[in-house]
Amino acid sequence: MAIALLTDFGTQDGFVGVMKGVILSINPGVQIVDISHEVQPFNVLEGALLLKAHYRYFPAGTIFVAVVDPGVGSERKPIALKTGDRFFVGPDNGIFDLIVREFERPPTAVVLENEKLQLPRVNDTFHGRDIFAPSAGYLSRGVPLEEFGSKVEYVQRLNFPGLVREGNKLRGQIVHFDRFGNAVTNIPCGNYPYGEFRGKRLKVVLFFQSGERGSLNLVCGSFGFMEIFVPMGDAREEFGLELGEEVIVWEV
């Protein structure tokens, strides 16, 4: 059994370490894996993209704890859900939306309200430690999902832009930049003969080094979406790319 952590906490303040301590206090034998703790602070969409990109490479039964939670302590609910053969624990703010969309059947979801399966709280500013980490620990010990709280219908909350289809043309947009300056779009990977950006044609390549140097290119990236990039360069910085800019591809 493994628990995978994804947060915007960074590593400076010990927040991730104390979450691991809580989990290990409940289940000393569980394996804990860090996906990333460098999500841009408060960027729920970035957290959702990272989860979507990586969750499928973990074994069945893995429990994912995702905490990018600008609404901590507010009316947003702490939830746990099961979809496919994996569990997800975190705030009900859309961070699981892109994963849920990949499954035909709706997930089984519960509100985390059983205080016996949580830490005592003196405030509501650190649900990662007090609610999500202990919930993951008890899940890893086999506590059934329904014991954590009442069932709820999962509601999509993330404002993730859709595609516009015009015949064999797909209109999408830039939704994220990775640390290399590559522009991740909302266009799923596919066999596209070419693309268009800012009125100019883009070459579609199979890997980064096959792109044209000094020019923008398109490639199927590790997020599962098409990305605009410059070989050995920072496309965002070099070309002044911005979130929301339109990207077009043609289908075969």
Q: What would you note in describing this structure?
A:
The protein has 252 residues and is of the alpha+beta class. The chain has helices spanning 15-26, 44-54, 97-100, 127-140, 235-239; strands spanning 2-7, 31-36, 63-67, 78-83, 86-91, 108-111, 151-152, 164-166, 169-177, 183-188, 194-197, 200-205, 217-220, 225-229, 246-250.
Name given to the CATH architecture of the largest domain: 3-Layer(aba) Sandwich
Per the CATH scheme, the topology name of the largest domain is Rossmann fold
Strand count, sense and closure of the main sheet? 7 strands, mixed
Strand content: 25-35%
Give the integer mean of the pLDDT values: 95
Report the order of strands and helices: EHEHEEEHEHEEEEEEEEHE
Say which CATH homologous superfamily of the largest domain is assigned.
S-adenosyl-l-methionine hydroxide adenosyltransferase, N-terminal
- Give the fraction of residues assigned to helices: 10-25%
Low-confidence parts, pLDDT < 50 over ≥5 residues?
A: none
Reading off the top of the CATH hierarchy, the class of the largest domain is best stated as: Alpha Beta
Number of strands: 15
How does the overall form come out from the CA principal axes?
elongated
- End-to-end C-alpha gap: 42 Å
Q: How many individual domains? A: 2
Count of alpha/pi helices: 5
